[in-house]
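[INFO] parsing input record for Cell division protein FtsA
[DEBUG] input buffer:
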Amino acid sequence: MIELYESQRAMRNMRKAAMQRGVVAILDVGSSKIACLVLRFDGAEPASGEVGSLAGQAGFRVIGAATTRSRGVRFGEIEAMVETERAIRTAVQAAQKMAQVRVDHVIACFSGAEPRSYGLAGEVDLEGAVVTEQDVSRVLSACDVPDYGHGREVLHAQPVNFALDHRSGLIDPRGQMGLRLATDMHMVTVDAVAVQNLAHCVRRCDLELAGIANSAYVSGVASLVEDEQELGSACIDMGGGSTGLSIFMKKHMIYADAVRLGGDHVTSDISMGLQVPLTTAERIKTFYGGVVATGMDDREMIDLEGDTGDWEHDRRTVSRAELIGIMRPRVEEILEEVRARLDAAGFEHLPSQQIVLTGGGSQIPGLDGLASKILGQQVRLGRPMRVHGLPQAATGPGFASAVGMCLFAAHPQDEWWDFELPVDRYPARSLRRAVKWFKDNW
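[DEBUG] output buffer:
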């Protein structure tokens, strides 16, 4: 645990140094595309046309942007190191060329690695009458960390609520008076190997990793409006290889999960169902896809232009209704899986229960109607907030996590490792492990 905090703390310090120097890159490592944005922090006030409080405060502008087709990434995790390294280099170099500046530090986000959420609680008696930074550190270190298993790493650990005596719902208790301080903390753990692979891949590209985040979390930061983040909403980030899920309440993420299904599975269903290559299937899905069939769709014929050399095979046509018949069951399966995760998280107990669909996979026509039927809530399609200098091509739902990473870099939320934890109160995991070893082996 301590080593992890040291590495997270080192990344946070590196990010601060990079931001003081003025330039940092954002890297969204997805299963279908790798996007890179170069940010310049200048402290200048953005234009008055910006949307939302975060965009209004952010003193940065995007000066370079590039995307490339993702290679070597599957289910949001790196599968082929050399291929992914090449794709990251391509995206970063193109973004640097546009920005005309060299970038050394990147902040990355990824969607896979099986995120799991934990709610922790801790409380301490105050040493003085007024809450100090030291008291906040003590109450955070008093949280009892669950045994989340070998081979897992903490990705986020954010205090989501403070209570002072009988008053709950405090965002920042420092400077207030009371006797007893309590906190609720949300912790997300991920598969350690996936994080190590990403860090190693970034290092192989001669870059320094200055931060790491969960895609579903940053997509929620970019796509949910302020009221939705406050009252309780879910962001469903439909990517190529996996569908991320994050629930927000009081402007904090309180739950994160991922479903290992995404838009690429729909494409492969079309490829197998129509016996066409994946590239053709992707084109057909993009131009003609949908999930709700109407009477007109039987008559709308789609040419399956093949290049096998077999004239009969290459000149086939298929009706749009047949295409929808292939796509709909897979989309329903993804949404049913998301519904199960939302139910497990207790989403129905939140006051607002708004659901926002974002990510590249959310652009299938008719998806919001089907989602509201299956998920049984108010569903809307979300686009990321406008940030200063972002090219028009990067304003669609597929760039929600990249834009969210910009906001995350400019306004990071307090995490456990931002506070100087008292050494004697570090979670005593190594001690517990030693005791268990004695019990098992003595």
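[INFO] The first helix runs from residue 2 to 21.
[INFO] shutting down worker
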